[in-house]
Amino acid sequence: MFPNMFPLGTGQFGALPVMPVQAMTQQATRHARRVYVGGLPPIANEQSVATFFSQVMAAIGGNTAGPGDAVVNVYINHEKKFAFVEMRSVEEASNAMALDGIIFEGAPVKVRRPSDYNPSLAATLGPSQPNPNLNLAAVGLTPGSAGGLEGPDRIFVGGLPYYFTEAQIRELLESFGALRGFDLVKDRETGNSKGYAFCVYQDLSVTDIACAALNGIKMGDKTLTVRRANQGTNQPKPEQENVLLHAQQQIALQRLMLQPPPVVTKVVCLTQVVTVDELKDDDEYEDILEDIRMEAGKFGQLVNVVIPRPRPDGENAPGVGKVFLEYADTEGSSKARAGMNGRKFGGNHVVAVFFPENKFSQGEYDD
């Protein structure tokens, strides 16, 4: 139709390119189809962002423009760690607004409208709010909880051991003050923790203190990542240092309380009991062995006592410096662990832990 109206190569319109209708529509709706994504990790690239958002849009039922990927283009500013993600349709871009706070490559990201978004114009192009029936739970988001804990003081708590209960995590966080909001993200199918949570404190002045005290500490086999969800970590102010020190002491106690319960076995391993030099002398070794037999026998039926000694060539054998107590049952070993842990022996405070029975029976005395 257009060539008939404006024949190319003739008249004053001959040198002007004609923009297809589809391209004109895309240009007019671009501000309403673009999504700002902030707080990206350094490893993010255009392809990983496009693939991720296409997948999560499909997972929540946010695709409305038919089959295929919702994302058509991605531009990343690596220096400032943000991206513009262009969707196929205005409605899909609005649905993407429900993804604020979603975890991308282990960190929560901000999902916002770009600065050139024109609300009044966008309202004429399609829906401006996400569909209320989106399945956000499919991607670990809960309307009114994780996504609802808004503002610059929202805290991301990642790296949580999966066995931590909601009550334990709250107890840990509340070492710094009462919570205004808390959400432990759980798997929709199993109800199990996905290892991260969000919270906001009632007293916003403790936000940075909590982040500084908790970030990087080890909990079981995990290391916590705790920071403001929507921005980089801020250092606590000088006047907060005393509060931070007290908080860190509280966390040290909480960490002990939140360790996973030990696996009870019939073998107890003692450390801080003997030195290498004491074990080299035969007479001293026999005295130590007898003393330990008498003391350990008070807790239950003792089957065996093993105290590894250095090799004759001076090289340390596996387990040197440890004492192993094997009991006839776990009742005896449990009493021994509780009774001997922390006691003084030869001027040292004894550390007593359960030891795997299979490793002990095979002579594997190292951890």
Automatic annotation (TrEMBL):
InterPro entries on file:
Nucleotide-bd_a/b_plait_sf, RBD_domain_sf, RRM_dom, U2AF_lg
Say if the entry is tagged with keyword Ribonucleoprotein. Answer: no
* GO annotation, biological process: mRNA processing; RNA splicing
Q: Which GO terms describe its cellular component?
A: spliceosomal complex
**Summary of the function given for this chain in its UniProt record:** Necessary for the splicing of pre-mRNA.
Cite the PANTHER family for this sequence.
RNA-BINDING PROTEIN (PTHR23139)
For this entry, the protein name equals Splicing factor U2af large subunit
Record organism:
Populus alba x Populus x berolinensis
